Amino acid sequence: MDFSYIDAIHAALNDSLRDDDRVFLYGQDIGKFGGAFKATKGLQDLYPGRVLDAPISEDAMAGVAMGAALEGMRPVLEMQFADFSTIALNQIVNHAATHFYRTGVPVPMTVRLPSGGTPGSGPFHSQSLEAIYASFPGLVVVTPATVADAYQMLVESIQLEDPVIFCEHKFLYRWLKSSTLQGDGLPIGKARITRAGKHATVVTYSAMVHEAVRAAEMLYDEGGWEIEVVDLRSIKPIDTDTVIASVARTGRLLAVGEAFPWGGVTAEIVSRVAADAFHLLDAPPARLNARDTPIPYHPKLWADHRPTPQTIAASLRNLLKY
Amino acid sequence: MPSVPILMPQLGESIAEATILRLEIAPGDRVETDHEVIEVETNKATMGVTTLCCGEVIEILAKEGETYPVGSVLALLEVDEAEIKRTGVSTVEEHMAEEGDDQPAGSDAEEENLHFKVDDDAYREPKVIEPNVKGLPVPAGRAGAHYISPRMRARMNDLGLQAADISAIVGSGAGGRVTVEDLEKFLDYIDTWPRSNASPMRMGVADSMRRSWTRPLASVGHPLVMDKLLHHRKSLASKPGPTLYVLRAFAIAIAENPAVAGYLIGDKIVHPRAIDIGVAVQVEDGVLVPILRSLDTKKLADLAAEYADLVKQARNRRLADEATRGGIATVTNFGTFGLTWGTPIPLPNETLILGLSAGVKKPVWSEDVQAFVPVTEAELALTFDHRVVDGGGAGMLLNRVVQLLQRPEDL
Amino acid sequence: MIPLVPVTREDRIDRNDLSGVREDLPRIYLAMLRARVLEDKLSSLYKAGKIVGGVYLGRGHEAVSGSLASYLHRGIDIFAPLIRDQAGRTAFGESLMDVTRTYLGSVEGPMKGRDGNIHRGRPQEGMPAMISHLGSSVALVAGMLMARRMQGRLEGVVGATSLGDGATSTGAFHEGLNTAAVEKLPMVVLVVNNQFAYSTGNDRQFACADLVDRARGYGVAGHKVQGNDLIAVAETMKKAVSAARDGGGPQLVVADLLRLCGHGEHDDASYVPAEMRASGLARDCMQVAEGQLIDAGVFSRSQLDEMRAQAVAEVQSAVAQTQQESAPHPHHDDWRTMYHGELEE
């Protein structure tokens, strides 16, 4: 039987509720209705009193989760869309994220952000906000790209003592399938070489891993180019060592992200490589992001707004010219 | 009794200074704990400055109407030890020491060097990055006098310049590095000198010699008595030149130990596939090197026509590209210009070049006739890549060539 | 500092019936007194240049804050104080040294110099460390109570938090109170309307006739009290806390008074109009309380004086000890932001 990415999320939530009495789920429409993406379908019946519908109050939801975490629970918050988590930004970044540093008391809460674009979702149901959260100290930010990672990293996130922003990609929910939920057991904080290569490195995460692999296949067919694809898996912490080891092999770097271009994960990657591994570069380190506009509604505009295998391949061709 | 300062407080997060409105104390006054004794005004508010202990005012340093920065000592109190213990206030000395703590730029030399002070756990080891490169070359060095930055490299590429072209420039950058500014200044300077365009032939030779010169090249020499060779030459109808004799002897000597002409790449020596040796031909504004194939297998008499043909084609610039490819060594007869000494440079893809100088008449002592007799003597100069061959190997090779040339009839 | 309106015989709340709060008054007053004396010292330390950052006082809030927390039990209940809750913190059992160490930046303090002044707490002992973002404590306390409900240990527990008139304008206050109401939590949300949010008066802060009117909109019980009248405040807090403890759901208590100081000690509150300074709102709750305690025969004047002298000595001793302690050292702080050090960048 095949597991989709959303099945993995569901299984991780189910298993965490089953194995740990401290775990509870809180979010809008997650009870009887099972959540906007059915991540919690049937869980309220299985775990009565531990899967709670929240009012449309993202700030209060995050505050509640933090309070419950301080009292020994393991709250897992579902933001209906990552976009709406901006309402909760204060509770997350100012209240929860600073807490261990200020008081020495950790806040074991997990905030699930259904992230990223799908055709037709438009400006307020498509955003990728991982970089915003990563820029504040005190948070772990994870961005699984595979079914097994979605399962394992969510289970692992819930068990961490620190607040975790869990960015799950909506496009992968039903599009990505795997025969197993069991992965290679890499811990949060370690990147994975998804595809080995020697001519250039693509560093990316979440759904863009799959677009990068497609671009790599195109370039292999086109000229035998062997492109290495690094899946960051977590963007805070970033596994700089694995990125630099890859650049040492290839001499060329392209950082790809689905988020807006100003600053962010790709800028962070390029800056780290430029600072620590300048002597390993044969070409200027490059980045490819979404356009610097709100995310468009129409699928034709949307498809051109974010990086695609074609635009990733074009960026790589530029690098390979050096 | 110890002195305790009254300080200008920080009255607001963005406040750097305040103005004294009213001094409510004078020297000799008794003050009580937590009483406001000086009224000050910031751009935000009017506030009172307090004392934190009981004592007697001994000196007022502040003046009404004047503005003082935060932290300034406004007045001094005389306070007894018991009161200091009760309230925990700092004396003037303690206050000054605390201020020093906050400002490493102060008087204490040790504190100034805080960054270089080794203080038990003051510094953490940087994270070691051990990239797994699986045998691919990763440059170890990052910088140095020879370093050409990506920016400089890009400008040089614009101008078609190589590293050798900027050897004349004294670098002003870090570690003596030549900067783009240095380069532009140098280009402005040479703009004032007479110039001509280098021909494609010149550029070809320049590129070839530049690449060759990246290697450690060494030269050795040996005299060659040419009389037997010159005598033998006259006996042949084709009258081959001394260059061809040298070519043939050189070929035989190499064929006996081909490794001497090997080419070093990484940790491998690439050996000759065939004893194909080139001959340097001076042409207009450059040199061409046609190759004579399998020289070790052909007799001298049979080579004269091929040799003459190749030299002619070269001089007429009609030489096919294939005719210059695949050589393993070169012979150059710089003696044709009357030169008696030289250190030729091998082609970048070859390890050896053998030069022949002009023959000179010399008296040589003959044991047979017990008298000086005249001989024609030239110099053979062998230049080699010292990574591949040592002085001994080069000497043995050269001795063997000389030996072979003393028996021209066998060539 | 706002000049105090003299308390006349006519102003005194003259009641023989203490409605069952008589036995609570000594401990409430003691917390008020300790807070006032401590804060006077903090102000003095600030004005002598010993405290950096800022000093934010609860002068005038002592009766309200101290009463609320006096009806809470440390170890059982939750109290999330805000900026002007020294009396409540003291009543809830916060040690004097926690205060002086945090204000003076001692490395021995609960915040170790990483945070200062009022941004301190003991979250594992039921007193969260506030952040500056107003209203954020409401949902936090709600979450703490929801956790206890899920853990089966909510019985008999009350969670309280304190805010001001300014905080009621935030989305966090609305979201938090609404959530607490939806969950029917045993919560007391104290709103002290001290007339000014920093320098902004009520007329630019809200448009409803009284903040307590909002209780109905949220579906919670509302209580209104004159905040500088100790007996009235004690009665109201006792009622509100009991109602919450007995399953009455969230209780919104609105107390009116005047902040008798600036927003912080850097602020001379020159924007407070003279007529307000002369009004009944400006009566100092300490003086009102002392009159009430003497009238009711709870304490004599000499007992009150003795208590004050005792409080002054305790504060002086804590300050003296704290000033001898070390400040944090940048090389010795581990700068850790997370429990899992291996996940730090």
UniProtKB/TrEMBL annotation, chain A:
Q: Name one Pfam family in it.
A: Transket_pyr
**An example Gene Ontology molecular-function term:** oxidoreductase activity
Q: Name the cofactor(s).
A: thiamine diphosphate
UniProtKB keywords? Oxidoreductase, Thiamine pyrophosphate
Per UniProt, residues of the Transketolase-like pyrimidine-binding domain are 3-175
The keyword Oxidoreductase is assigned to this record: yes
Q: Which InterPro entries match?
A: THDP-binding, Transketo_C/PFOR_II, Transketolase-like_Pyr-bd, Transketolase_C
Question: In terms of domain of life, where is this protein from?
Answer: Bacteria
In terms of SMART domains, this protein maps to: Transket_pyr
| Database matches in PANTHER family | PYRUVATE DEHYDROGENASE E1 COMPONENT BETA SUBUNIT, PYRUVATE DEHYDROGENASE E1 COMPONENT SUBUNIT BETA
Protein name per its UniProtKB record? Alpha-ketoacid dehydrogenase subunit beta
TrEMBL record, chain B:
Q: Which InterPro entries match?
A: 2-oxoacid_DH_actylTfrase, 2-oxoacid_DH_E2_comp, Biotin_lipoyl, CAT-like_dom_sf, E3-bd_dom_sf, PSBD, Single_hybrid_motif
Q: List the GO terms this entry assigns under cellular component, sorted alphabetically.
A: cytoplasm
Superkingdom, taxonomy of origin: Bacteria
Keyword check for Transmembrane, yes or no: no
Domain Peripheral subunit-binding (PSBD): where? 147-187
Q: Which PANTHER family match?
A: DIHYDROLIPOAMIDE ACETYLTRANSFERASE COMPONENT OF PYRUVATE DEHYDROGENASE COMPLEX, LIPOAMIDE ACYLTRANSFERASE COMPONENT OF BRANCHED-CHAIN ALPHA-KETO ACID DEHYDROGENASE COMPLEX, MITOCHONDRIAL
Could you give the subunit structure recorded for this chain?
Forms a 24-polypeptide structural core with octahedral symmetry.
Name it: Dihydrolipoamide acetyltransferase component of pyruvate dehydrogenase complex
Q: Which organism is it from?
A: Persicirhabdus sediminis
